[in-house]
């Protein structure tokens, strides 16, 4: 299911987007975020929401896409899209299982994201020290 894999990256970005800002804003934010990412209720809620979002997107009519294709001169491709088709129709037969698959995979992805955040938090002091040393070394070159 290549479409599921394709959607995994934006999902990870969506889940992790607030992490750097939260970590800068207050001490312990990473610990709070890790707890949220690993909380089964939060995981279930995000999984349900993402599954519902994907289902809604797949149910959207493809007509606006056809109009855009025609307006850009891509008439041959636009003609290949059947009247009344949905984005799910265009995505292919596996699209029917995507919402359920996303819902099933989100908890594991969130747990993995929490683990990665924990590793990043652990490494942060060492990375900061390396950055300061690099800054000093590069400053000596001037």
Concise summary:
The protein has 142 residues and is mainly α. The protein has helices at residues 2-16, 19-25, 29-38, 40-59, 63-71, 75-79, 87-91, 98-140.
Largest sheet: none
User: What structural class do helix, strand and pairing data support?
Assistant: mainly alpha
Arithmetic mean pLDDT = 84
The proportion of strand residues reads: under 5%
Keywords:
single chain, 142 residues, mainly alpha, 8 helices, 80% helix, 0% strand, flat
Tell me what you see in this structure.
It is flat and about 65 Å long. It is mainly alpha-helical. The protein has helices spanning about 1-15, 20-25, 30-40, 40-60, 65-70, 75-80, 85-90, 100-140.
Please specify the SSE layout and strand pairing.
Blueprint: H1 2-16, H2 19-25, H3 29-38, H4 40-59, H5 63-71, H6 75-79, H7 87-91, H8 98-140
């Amino acid at each position: 299911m290549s479409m599921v894999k394709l959607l995994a990256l934006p999902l990870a970005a969506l889940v992790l987007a607030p992490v750097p800002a939260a970590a800068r804003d207050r001490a312990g934010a990473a610990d709070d975020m890790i707890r949220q990412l690993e909380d089964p209720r939060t995981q279930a809620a995000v999984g349900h929401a993402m599954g519902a979002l994907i289902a809604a997107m797949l149910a959207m009519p493809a007509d606006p896409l056809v109009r855009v294709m025609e307006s850009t001169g891509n008439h041959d491709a636009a003609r290949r899209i059947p009247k009344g088709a949905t984005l799910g129709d265009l995505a292919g037969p596996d699209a029917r299982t995507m919402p359920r698959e996303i819902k099933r995979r989100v908890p594991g992805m969130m747990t993995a994201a929490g683990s990665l955040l924990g590793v990043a938090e652990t490494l942060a002091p060492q990375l900061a020290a390396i950055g300061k040393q690099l800054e000093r070394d590069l400053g000596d070159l001037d």
